[in-house]
Amino acid sequence: xxxxxxxxxKRRIARIPTEELERVLLEEEESIRLQVGRSPEQALKxxxxxxxxxxxMCFMMPGHxxxxxxxxxxxxxxxxFRFSTDAVVRWALGAQVGVEFLDxxxxxxxxxxxxxxxxxxxxxxEEQDD
Length: 130
Known about the structure:
Helix content is 28%, strand content 37%. It has two helices and seven strands; from the N terminus they run βαββββββα.
């Protein structure tokens, strides 16, 4: 069986792993929801957010059929933050897809999600101090 590698690491912005974001949101009884489609008018499919950053996100969606360069529509809820945006697929590998946001509103929401990272880091430091 051939091993497929994730595209070369060219990231300049730190990613927030979904597991950490979920942990903080669950403490506040909030949730994460992600739906993806080719356009807002098309039926959207559920995806699982893997990570998010100011410029885009990575998600998992088996059977997506997306390819690098495809334009897609994303509707997302990150706790109290909801946003819809157009995005371009930057890479697709199996069920995983990396996208770049084309809308400043999504970039703002992703930045707000990054603010959760400070809570995450604070809580991790508190756990280490115990």
